[in-house]
Amino acid sequence: MLTRFAPSPTGYLHLGNIRTALVCWLYARKEGGKFMLRIDDTDRERSKEEYVTAIRKELDWLGINPDMEARQSERFPRYFEIIEKLKSVGRLYACYETAEELEFKRKIQLGRGMPPVYDRSSLKLTDADRSKLESEGRKPHYRFLLEDREIEWDDQIRGKIKLSPASMSDPIVVRGNGDFTYMLPSSVDDIDFEITHILRGEDHISNTAIQIQIMQALDAKIPSFAHNSLIKTREGKLSKRSGKAGISELREQGIRPMALCSFLAKIGTADNIELKDSLQQLMEEFDITKFSKSPTMYDFEDILRLNSKALHETSFSEIKDKMPAGLTEDFWNSVRANVENIETAKLWWDICKNEINATIAAEDKDFLKLANDNFPEGEVTKTTWDSWISQLKTTSGRKGKALFMPLRIALTGIEHGPELKDLLPLIGRETILKRLTKA
Q1: Cβ atoms within 10 A of the Cβ of 18, count?
Q2: What is the β-pairing status of strands 34-39 and 2-5?
Q3: Are 276 and 282 in contact (CB under 8 A)?
Q4: Rounded distance between C-alpha atoms, residue 323 and residue 175, angstroms
Q5: Under DSSP, is residue 297 helix (H, G, I), strand (E, B) or coil?
Q6: Do 29 and 283 meet the contact criterion of CB atoms below 8 Å apart?
Q7: Residue 3: partners with Cβ closer than 8 Å, 6 or more residues away
């Protein structure tokens, strides 16, 4: 059994990409098979090596380790060989329309209430017609001729799928500049590397129908397919350039690998989305039939919730390189139970060490003066808070929120966060008294 993840290095990975990679990896591992990384870099203009490096880096960070790797840019001779074979059996044909001409045809069809399907007019060209067009400087692009028969397969997530080629245009497989489109190289690679299971997003369903006919034209065995619902934000579909959806941004924000994997492995299933200890645990629980056909909404807060739990168990050594200079292990151990990501930890470091703005209610000012006058002498430790609050409770007559909230606001500027008994040693005596005096 062999699955594959086949990203195009034309941008950075987003959550949808990583979800596909993770699902393929988990499926392969669960079934005792192998997982392949295939870099689909046939787009010579948009593919960049920096994106290839980033893809490998993000997969490694998440623990999704390929058993093998291939690059389409190294297989062009094989694709040209298949192109000639398909031409010889009449399944590829040359077309000469410009993009503007094709768009004009499309508008006419839509205006007549017809589906915008290519009319195959190029099949009627004679050798003389083609010679004339080429003498005018037109370079042909090539389309794959779809056979007029229903295409069907048993999808592991969506069940029986049937599509009619009548609703599809013969796909362009080679552009006028000689570049390959996605369709043919992907199909050839799946055949040559003997990919047995293809798991990807539902936006590839029409591609699958076309690729099945390409594979059949090449007398190849058809893999098993599974098409997952897409992950969508409240604003719409994810993309390689959409802010919080970018994996590199999430990593830099301090999102932990297992928080992300725990989320992506379960979203779209009926299973509870909970933080798991390891990929091994996710693999043992994996079942492709649990995934739903229904649209899957993505909420960043779900990841933050899992990430908060993951950070509570993260050692200082694991996140030290992402912290501001001077931030100590004691500080991290004090605040990690109250952070959602690394940025929150940086925020608390800033609160403890730099100037803050605190809005104090008029009725609390005398109480804070009393708190300043009664602050315990000596070194500030984690026991300082208990003795201080006990004394203030007796002398002020306050209790509950009226007792501790004015202190929290005066010392941190906000109404929530780590326990003040943990924060006092981090803020320090001098700053504590200065903030109380100012309040």
Answers
A1: 24
A2: parallel
A3: yes
A4: 49
A5: strand
A6: yes
A7: 24, 25, 27, 28, 33, 34, 35, 36, 195, 196, 197, 198, 199
- CA angle, 375 then 381 then 386, to 5°: 60
Closest CA relative to residue 371, chosen from 398, 407, 397, 402: 407
Which residues, listed in sequence order, are joined to residue 202 by a DSSP beta bridge?
A: none
Q: Contact 296/231 with Cβ under 8 angstroms?
A: yes
In this structure, the dihedral spanned by the alpha carbons of residues 208, 214, 217 and 219, taken in order and rounded to 10 degrees, is -70
Q: How far are the Cα atoms of 108, 122, 328, 378 from residue 346, in angstroms, in the given order?
A: 58, 63, 12, 28
pTM of the model: 0.82
Q: Are strands 151-155 and 159-163 parallel, antiparallel or unpaired?
A: antiparallel
Say if CB 209 and CB 14 are below 8 A apart.
no
Q: CA-to-CA distance for 426 and 46, rounded, in angstroms?
A: 49
List the one residue out of 220, 224, 217 whose CA is nearest residue 200.
Answer: 224
Apex CA 85: angle with CA 80 and CA 90, to 5°? 125
Q: Nearest CA to 311 among 293, 346, 277, 338?
A: 338
Helix (H, G, I), strand (E, B), or coil: what is residue 63?
coil
> Apex CA 128: angle with CA 124 and CA 132, to 5°?
105
Say which amino acid occupies 439: A
Tokens, residue 61: 């960070």
Q: Which residue has the tokens 């500030």?
A: 380
State whether the Cα torsion 64-65-68-73 is positive or negative: positive
Encode the chain (439 residues) as per-residue pLDDT tens digits: 999 999 999 999 988 899 999 999 999 999 999 999 999 999 888 999 999 999 999 999 999 999 999 999 999 999 999 999 999 999 999 999 999 999 999 999 999 888 899 999 999 999 999 999 999 999 999 999 999 999 999 999 999 999 999 889 999 999 999 999 999 999 999 999 999 999 999 999 999 999 999 999 999 999 999 999 988 776 655 544 343 457 888 888 788 999 999 999 999 998 999 999 999 999 999 999 999 998 888 778 888 889 989 988 889 998 888 888 888 898 898 888 888 788 888 888 899 888 898 889 999 999 999 999 999 998 999 899 999 999 999 999 998 999 999 999 999 998 988 889 988 998 999 999 999 998 8
Residue 328 per-residue DSSP state: -
